[in-house]
Amino acid sequence: MANIITGTNENFNEVINGELPVLVDFWATWCGPCRMIGPFIEQLADEYAGKVTFMKVNVDEEQELCMRYRISSIPNLVLFKDGDVIDQSAGARPKQQIAAFIEQAL
Hints:
This protein has about 110 residues and is α/β, with parallel strands linked by helices. The protein has helices at about 10-15, 30-45, 65-70, 95-105, and strands at about 5, 20-25, 55-60, 75-80, 85-90. The chain has a single domain, classed as Glutaredoxin. The protein is globular, with a radius of gyration of 12 Å. It starts with a strand and ends with a helix.
């Protein structure tokens, strides 16, 4: 079972500054493309367990984080390493493209 952290304003900085790279999925329950890539994110969280931390941030609940990272469209994947943004990708992507996106941090 995928171990995906629910991102909040309270835990966000601690998680992105952890030892592992972090993939943050900015999403919403009403977003069709977000629901489409959700299973891919869960599968990749299992496949990259121990190598990458996965976090999901609900844009409706965490608007301050969305403003901080200028999230204007979802789904939006943001890749962090050592607390810094490495790359960002908006829109739904196939699982293989998301995996290649993650590989940048390894």
